[in-house]
Specification:
Blueprint (H helix, E strand, L loop, with lengths): L1 E7 L2 E6 L9 E10 L2 H9 L1 E2 L2 E2 L4 E2 L3 E9 L11 E4 L2 E3 L19 E3 L16 E5 L3 E3 L6 H4 L2 H13 L7 E5 L3 H12 L4 E6 L2 H9 L4 E4 L10 E6 L7 H7 E9 L13 H5 L3 E4 L6 H10 L8 E6 L3 H8 L8 E5 L5
Helix pairs in contact: 3-4, 3-8, 4-5
Amino acid sequence: MKAVVVHGANDLRVDERPDPVPGMGEVLIAMEWGGVCGSDLAYWRHGSSGTAVLRSPLVLGHEVAGRIAAVGDGVTGYEVGLPVTVHPAELVGDGCLPERIAGRTNLYPRIRYFGSAAFDPHTDGGFSELRVVRADQLRPLPDGVSTEHGALAEPLAVALHAVHRAGTVRGRDVVVNGAGPIGSLVVAAAKYRGAASVVAADISDASLAVAKAMGADEVRNLAAGDTLPDDAELLFEASGAPAALGNVLRATARGGTLVQVGNLPGTAVSAVLGDLVTREITWVGAYRFVEEISDALAAMRDGLDVSPVITHRFPIEEAEEALAVAGDRSTGSSKVMLRLGGAS
């Protein structure tokens, strides 16, 4: 089978690997679509993502969907041909959490994640023609949800989790800073959860056009002289840019809430944070998701359309070009998709 493998910084290859066979409690998926994420780009560009450093070749990809190709022993309830996506997290250990964070499995300290070098040996991702998956990680796609859209259940789950962290958004005015793929999906998630209005801000007209298509009521180009709305009661920071934090905090209303969904660097940065104190802002982190991947599939079933966020498609053989396009904002890319095999 073909697989998209990063061997080191700036060393991405489409390798031939043996076809895997499902074991006890496992299912073989014939992958069809995968979405390129920022962590995939980080491994390709730097040989690391956050604190996870490549020590051996790694198959990329955690936003994937396909169809069941074979079922291992001990698995019931799944038939060959069923379209599925995958919850990419696997808890390592007993899964017990302190009572104060009971059920918040995204905060469990040891998690294997598709396409991650956090453990050695690494956890291969799903950018391959075939992938064996534990049956409990499968999430069947609802009727009417294609495998291409199913591959976006993972990033939509991240967005829905961020919205969940804000509390009730129904009837509230929302601002989203950063209109990349996650920011645009936060726009859609907030509207889906009943936000009265959503303003999206970015420095790219192409990204703002995607956010508008995903449901933003108003867009603002900060590079063209626009500013963030004043006194935003609820603001989502999706850019992950430390330089943006001062303006974002200043735009948040006194007593307001700021949800940080954009990944911030794991190293020291300079940022103006004084308004966090003087405005008594509640600054909340949002990390991955718990079971919102099932909520994401239900949202798509109910009509949430993720198609505007998809801007480019490439075959698996052109994986390096796909990552190059995804990592270059001048291309106008939002979510770049890899066709891993099969049909949608």
